[in-house]
Amino acid sequence: MAEPAVKSVPTASAAAVTTQQSAKRQEIFAGLVFIAPAFVILFLFMILPLLVAGYFSLTDWNGRRPLNQEGAYEIVGLRNYEQLLIQGRRVDDFYNALKNTVYYVLGVVPTQTIIALVLAVIVNQKWMRWRGFFRTAYYFPSITSSIVVSMIFLFMFSNTGPVNGFLSSVFPSYKPVTWLANNDGVIHNFLGVLGITENSSTFLKDTEIFRISLWDWLSGPSVSLLTIMILAIWTTIGTMMVVYLSALQNIPAQVYEAAYVDGATAWQAFRKITVPLLAPTTFFVITLGLIGTFQVFDQIYVLRNDTTRETTMSVAYLVYDFAFGSLNDPRMDRATATAVTLFLIIFVATLIQRRITGGDQAK
Amino acid sequence: MVKMRLVALALLLVLALSLSGIAAAQDSVTLRVWTGSSSPAENEFKEAQFARFQEANPNITLDVLISPDYGTQIQAAFAAGDYPEVFTAGQFDFPSYVDSGLLMPAGDRIVEPDDIYPSLQAAFSDADGNAYCVPKDFSTLALFYNADYFEQAGVDAPTAEWTWDDMSAAAQAITDADLTTADGIEVVGLSAAADRNRWMAFFWGNGAQLFNDADEVVFDSPESIASLEFYANFVTAGTGAIPANLGGAGWNGEAFGKGYAAMTVEGNWAIGYLRNDFPDVNWGVVEIPTAPSGNKGTLTFTECWAVGANAANDPAVADAAWALVNFLTGPEEAVANGNEGFGPMPARASAAEAWLAAQGDVGAPFVAGADYAWAPVFPLGYGDFTAAVDEGTVAVMNGEATAEEAITEAAEIAREIQAEG
Questions:
Q1: A326: chain B residues, CB-CB within 8 Å
Q2: What ipTM describes this predicted complex?
Q3: Which CATH number fits domain B28-139+301-374: 3.40.190.120, 3.40.50.2020, 3.40.190.10, 1.10.10.10?
Q4: pTM
Q5: Minimal Cα–Cα distance from B248 to chain A, Å?
Q6: Distance from CA of B63 to the nearest CA of A (A)
Q7: Contact B394/A307, CB-based, under 8 Å?
Q8: Which of A298, B127, B357, B388 has the most CB within a 10 Å radius?
Q9: Does A360 have pLDDT greater than 70?
Q10: Where are the domains of chain B?
Q11: What confidence tier does B124 reach under pLDDT thresholds 50, 70, 90?
Q12: In this structure, how many other beta carbons lie within 10 angstroms of the beta carbon of residue A163?
């Protein structure tokens, strides 16, 4: 079989080149066909709307004027961004929302990542009984509708709800907290325990950045927002745990065996083997968490009320509020400008996070 | 192959049938009619109305959509420029609808316009008084009180002659009486939502305005400040509370129904809610107490049937659309609406009796309110102003700002907006 092949080398190689070329072409074609559905969907529902939103953020469209009508909108340049970010009546609203969102992200993402990792390691232990049950139990909140979960929290954290009931039965001196209607910042509360109040420092009280005083910037999330953060952590750890679990099962058992032969303790094995080998997963989990938390909307939609309007306002909620909150004066232009700004914030935050967690080295 | 051919044949048949359907419809007019979905009773009533209209006008075909997600759907339709010929509009949406050129002016097409409450028609007219939209029904605010608590605290039940001072004194007396509910919560005098659309009943009652006759912003008048002070004082003085702090209630009606508060300011939509969910509570309703100015004020929330500007292109469509709107809002249907007796009151004075008969005595204060009610709608472009009022309302009721500070700040913003034009 080898002989004739060698004989026909020149013709065969020419044929091979053409077949190789056409095979390559076919491959490219097949590749394009395979990514086409995903690309079309992404383009139609993500990229195109993003571009359209970017366009309308440069106009004064109210979201109602028929676009096929003459003079439905005018191009106003960067006016919406200027009014939102630099000077305007709603500048403090935007930075207040941004402040709340950042506290929310900083509180939720590390907590849910660490708890998910610990839970995943625990339910991955071989000696663990009813592993299946625990895995299901922890995953359950993630597959429940966030609206339903929010309603449950609404009940649990109400004045006469189970949380306050439990706390007052354990600590008889506990004064019931109105979890979902409390605007006090938790850092403010903590400082208050140490005897530091708004009036302790005129520098903090009187220095204003974007019409919000330094003291208010340092408030931390309000008690109401903290409750929403607890809810977010509780619902997301299940998903993150499942991701960690699948990565854990990909770590070869021999690595651990070798470590134990060398005399490693369980803690050392966790620190020196599990955590480093899970780094790519951690990057993924944190990225997902970051994007999800920056866009927090539905939990806030259900759990806020008139009195916590300001301290539970997130940037994503502000987008909704501008576009649909005021029936009297809908501002689609401003809403899209806010949405584009939020997109840029998330983009930058993800880049920074990629640097810090070394996501580019992760395979 | 045979199968393919059969499918193709079937498709052709369907196409032919639908084409013939279009051909048949061309002799008559088809109207797209969109409205929001509310209670099952009201949806049923709307369906019945459409059926009655169809029967009387066989040449007009109605393509009806009753949507639970109406606001989003119609906004998308407006933006696309392909919207229904007849639809409902709320008072808050109205100014931007007119500004966006979405409504066909009514001209003199409205039947028996004098029968419609002037305060409602005013809510659906532009600054020059041109009507665009015909009020369908409306709600007003009044004072609900828990008769048992008043008796237990030894306070006389409220009357229509009550003043602000009487209301404050009663809230104080009931709070001081230390009544508790079955689940151990202390009863307060008033459930007071931190909502612009509640306290502003006292604002207009006290003779305050956003603009004076010379079109200057007078939102920071002493009457205005006094009205917010009066309302917020219930909460800051502890003789009232916001519903969220009353057993975590979602709104005034719930806090009141569960017995956490002896009084609350709510609309006639609360009547059916209280009857269904809290049949054991012994409650009554009176008009909102008289302000120091000697006048009464209340807020109205109303909806109208509108004809889209797109109907104006074709006289036949416009005539059909106005025929439908006049049918839906006309005297006869208003009485039918009243007889049904669900939530809102018919927009025609001639139908008030029917509504009262269906609703009972508790409806009377709401009907009486129609004479001095204000639609709490501010001009287009004043969104930042209303946002400032909302923020200020919450700040004052949380004790973080005085009424004067909050009102002054909002007034400054209104002046700024006015100066920008």
A1: 383, 386-387
A2: 0.80
A3: 3.40.190.10
A4: 0.83
A5: 5
A6: 21
A7: yes
A8: B388
A9: no
A10: 28-139+301-374, 140-299+377-420
A11: very high
A12: 18
